[in-house]
Structure formats: C-alpha cells, structure tokens
C-alpha cells in the first residue's frame, strides 16, 4: 500500500439543479476537489460509479471522448447547456478490465451522466481530468457490490480516483419540494448509515435493509449501491463526512472521503 494512494469519494447528488447552484452543498463538493489536488495531487483519471448507469451487468466505458448524457427531463434549459467535456482514459479502462476479468465488459452506449457531471462540475470545474464510468450492476447483492469495490482498490495506488455518486436516502415518491430539511425517517436513516461509515462498521452498511426506515430511505437500491462500491474500495481507510445535509424531505446529500 502506497502512502500517497488516492482517496475514495462518495457524494450525494440529489436534484440535477445542483449543477447550477452555488451554496453550502456545492462549496462542500468544491472543497473536496481542492483538498484532493492539494493533498494527493491531480488524479490521473476518475473512475465514476453513478447511480444513473444501473444495468443488468457490469460495464466499463472505453470511449476516447465520452458523450455527456442529459438523463433528466423537465428542467430549465440552462441546465441542458451545462458542459463538462471530459476525455476518456484507455489505460484506466484496461486496468478495470484486468482487475475484474470476465466479470466486466466494454459498453459505450451510455456516457457521463448527471450523477457524475453535476458533482464533478463543482469538484473539478476545469473538466481536465479524464473520466471513465463503471455501471452499477443491479443483479449484484449489496455484499457483491462491496466485493467489486474491493477488487478495484489497487487503482488508487496507480493515481486513479474512485468516485461514487448516489444518495444515502433517495425516495423520489416521497419528495417534499417545500421542505428544506429531511423527514424524521430520512434523518434517522442518514444518521445510522453515517455513524456506521465513520466507525467503519461496513457490515451494518452492507446489511442496510435491516435498519429501521430502510424501506422508506432506500425503496430502490440504485442510489445506495455506489456507496458500497466505495466502501469496498476504501479498505480500512478512515472516513471524513462532508455535506451531512438532508433536504426535500426524502433526500440525503451526505458524502464521505475515505483516506489513510
């Protein structure tokens, strides 16, 4: 293990409108990006694991210039004009294929979706770090998702940043647009997961379904599983919490930086 291995980052992303906002949450994201560059240097490339590429298998991108995906509807035109023109990174794609073997295959039908670019536009606004997305495999159990992350951990020693984007709590059907905070159920589940992450009680996070309010907080696994990939990739590293905020009633924006 190298002392200068890249950290692992999980970030909540919430509404796509976060890309246009300038507030405490976006400053929290920006601060994480600055801290990474100041402490570990500029990542060679980013492996992004976004809730919005939720697939029947495990796929990795290989495009030299991945398309920016506007996978959201009904938002102001200004949002669709946000550009985050990153390049791909063939060496990272090859490394992921080497680490995961036959478990992963190349698929360039997708691109850099809003789970990725709405956060990275704040963390690394110059869009000068290549990005390769890895899909979230809907067929994997939470434990298998965690194990996939463990297999990817060596990327950190090669200068790659592993970045997961989702939400600890994400229930669109229960969103309260006029609620600037979280419901009691959102707050309680976010607190339980965050305490487990801080204590590196990974089994509690893996077995999140047994926690009170799990059915409300995680009605579908797509936004939660990226956290498990990140936990696996983090090894025994400690976690620093950022953006520990619940909003829209049923959303948690909480993020974690895992570092030695």
Give a verbal description of the structure:
Helix content is 33%, strand content 18%. The chain is built from nine helices and ten strands. Strands 5-2-6-1-10-7 form a six-stranded mixed sheet, with helices on both faces. The chain has a two-stranded parallel ribbon with strand order 3-4. Strands 8-9 form a two-stranded antiparallel sheet. The protein is globular, with a radius of gyration of 17 Å.
SSE diagram, text form:
Layout: E1 8-12, H1 24-40, E2 45-55, E3 59-60, H2 77-80, H3 90-100, E4 105-106, H4 114-123, E5 131-137, H5 142-151, E6 160-166, H6 184-198, H7 202-206, H8 214-217, H9 225-233, E7 238-242, E8 246-247, E9 251-252, E10 255-259
Comma- or semicolon-separated keywords:
260 residues, 6-stranded mixed β-sheet, two-stranded parallel sheet, 18% strand, globular
Summarize the structure.
With 260 residues, the protein is an alpha/beta fold.
- First-residue to last-residue Cα separation: 10 Å
- Shape type: globular
The percent of residues in helical segments reads 25-40%
Low-pLDDT residue intervals, each spanning 5 or more residues: none
Gyration radius, rounded:
17 Å
How confident overall, as mean pLDDT? Answer: 96
Query: Spatial order of the strands in the main sheet?
Result: 5-2-6-1-10-7
- Structural class comes to alpha/beta
SSE series:
EHEEHHEHEHEHHHHEEEE
Largest sheet: 6 strands, mixed
């Amino acid at each position: 293990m190298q002392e200068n291995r890249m950290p692992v980052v999980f970030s909540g992303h919430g509404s796509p409108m976060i890309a246009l906002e300038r507030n405490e949450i976006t400053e929290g994201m920006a601060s994480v990006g600055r801290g990474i560059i100041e402490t570990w240097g500029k990542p060679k490339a980013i492996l992004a694991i976004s809730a919005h590429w939720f697939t029947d298998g495990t796929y990795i991108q290989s495009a030299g210039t991945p398309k920016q995906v506007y996978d959201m509807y009904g938002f102001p035109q200004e949002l669709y004009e946000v550009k985050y023109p990153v390049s791909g990174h063939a060496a990272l794609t090859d490394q992921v294929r080497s680490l995961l073997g036959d478990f992963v295959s190349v698929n360039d039908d997708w691109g850099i979706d809003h789970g990725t670019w709405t956060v990275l536009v704040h963390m690394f606004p110059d869009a000068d770090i290549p990005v390769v997305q890895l899909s979230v495999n809907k067929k994997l159990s939470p434990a298998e998702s965690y194990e996939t992350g463990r297999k990817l951990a060596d990327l950190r020693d090669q200068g790659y940043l592993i970045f997961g984007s989702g939400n600890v709590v994400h229930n669109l059907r229960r969103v309260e647009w006029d609620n600037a905070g979280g419901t009691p159920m959102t707050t309680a589940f976010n607190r339980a997961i965050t305490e487990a992450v801080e204590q590196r009680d990974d089994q509690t996070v893996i077995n999140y379904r047994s926690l009170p309010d799990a059915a409300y907080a995680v009605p579908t696994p797509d936004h939660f599983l990226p956290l498990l990939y990140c936990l696996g990739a983090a090894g025994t590293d400690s976690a620093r919490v950022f953006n520990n905020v619940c909003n829209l009633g049923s959303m948690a924006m909480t993020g974690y930086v895992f570092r030695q």
